């Protein structure tokens, strides 16, 4: 009897762990930047590490800006106006994301002259650059992150922001319990980037009603946070927070640009700072012979079949044999990407 209770408790804990999670990594124009392990060190990453995979609860929670106890990352990822940034999420067991109902939104905030490595996210003036909610045919775009490792959702960076370092705040609002007050589950995450010069002659940061702070940007009773109709057929989800910023230089692309079987190029796990050249989108596998490409695909297929409990050392050895110049690859390939409805 005692053994049965222990097993039941372990199963319950395991299911709860799998139900939560964190940002697993990002791709910027095909270049992969892995996320730190929860409760890990942010030192060699561009994604700020959180210390808890559970959701942030309550819109007045101080962790609403970048996640539970998020620590500043030491590095920034180079990006350009109009770059596509793709996000992949993992559950608490480092498996695929599980929640499928609610909003997916992306914000940005300038880090100022101090740079993102020293910037306190509590002072960030966030403006919204992308949002995805309910699909026209029913269901939510968040579901596109579930089921497999190779799922991402993407957003296109604005083309008219001043050059400099920015926080990208990517957020999932899981609404499976959002029909009742306080039920919404927030999963915010912050990425540090260095944005090159804009394509327009004059560029200013958004201000006024276009910017919010976190906490402060939402209320627990806002539509889209307290919403008894999230599962109603034909219901149109109402996004919380400010409206999308106006950027006439950037067009909406709801259908997405798609992805290749493998990223065009890959960070080596310690992404370069903004002083380094942006990795070429034609580098990596695309410069190899057809034989090398076939070998890479063979390696990825075997890794994918093995699932989340792969032998990481063996994985690295296999990739190293396939592409000697590239010592680090994401733990899963990218099959397709949905670009956020945005500016």
Account of the protein in words:
This protein has 343 residues and is α+β, with helices and mostly antiparallel strands. It has a single domain (2-277, 337-342), classed as Coagulation Factor XIII, Chain A, domain 1 (Distorted Sandwich). Helices cover 13% and strands 22% of the residues. It contains three helices and 13 strands, in the order αβββββββββββααββ. The chain has helices at 2-19, 290-306, 312-322, and strands at residues 21-28, 31-34, 77-79, 84-91, 102-110, 126-132, 151-156, 164-174, 185-195, 211-212, 265-266, 336-339, 341-342. The strands form two sheets. Strands 3, 5, 6, 8, 9, 10 and 13 form a seven-stranded mixed sheet that branches. Strand 1 and strand 2 form a beta hairpin.
Distance between the terminal alpha carbons, to the nearest Å? 58 Å
Silhouette: globular
Largest sheet entry: 7 strands, mixed
Question: What does the average pLDDT come to?
Answer: 76
């Amino acid at each position: 009897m005692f053994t049965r209770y222990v097993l039941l408790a372990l199963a319950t804990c395991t299911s709860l762990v799998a139900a939560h999670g964190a940002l697993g990594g990002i791709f910027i124009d095909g270049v992969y930047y892995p996320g730190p392990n929860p409760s890990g060190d942010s030192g060699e990453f561009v994604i700020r590490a959180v210390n808890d995979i559970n959701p942030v609860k309550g819109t007045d929670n101080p962790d609403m800006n970048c996640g539970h106890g998020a620590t500043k990352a030491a590095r920034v990822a180079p990006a350009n106006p109009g770059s596509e940034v793709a996000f992949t999420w993992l559950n608490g067991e480092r498996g695929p994301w599980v929640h499928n109902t609610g909003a997916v939104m992306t914000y940005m905030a300038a880090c100022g002259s101090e740079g993102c490595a020293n910037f306190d996210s509590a002072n960030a003036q966030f403006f919204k650059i992308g949002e995805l909610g309910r699909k026209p045919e029913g269901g939510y775009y968040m579901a596109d992150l579930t089921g497999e490792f190779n799922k991402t959702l993407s957003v296109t960076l604005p083309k008219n922001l001043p050059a400099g370092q920015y926080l990208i705040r990517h957020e999932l609002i899981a609404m499976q319990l959002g029909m009742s007050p306080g039920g919404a589950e927030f999963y915010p995450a912050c990425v540090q980037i260095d944005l090159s010069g804009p394509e327009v002659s004059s560029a200013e940061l958004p201000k006024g009603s276009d910017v919010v702070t976190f906490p402060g940007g939402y209320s627990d009773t806002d539509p889209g946070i307290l919403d008894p109709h999230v599962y109603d057929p034909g219901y149109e989800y109402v996004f919380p927070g400010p409206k999308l910023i106006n950027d006439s230089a950037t067009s909406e692309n709801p259908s997405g640009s798609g992805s290749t079987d493998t990223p065009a190029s890959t960070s080596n796990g310690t992404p370069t700072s903004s002083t380094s050249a942006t990795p070429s989108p034609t580098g990596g596998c695309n410069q190899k012979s057809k034989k090398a490409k076939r070998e890479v695909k063979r390696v990825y297929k075997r890794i994918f079949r093995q699932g989340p409990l792969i032998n990481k050392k063996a994985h690295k050895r296999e990739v190293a044999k396939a592409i000697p110049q590239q010592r680090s690859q994401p733990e899963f390939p990218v099959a397709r990407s949905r670009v956020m409805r945005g500016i």
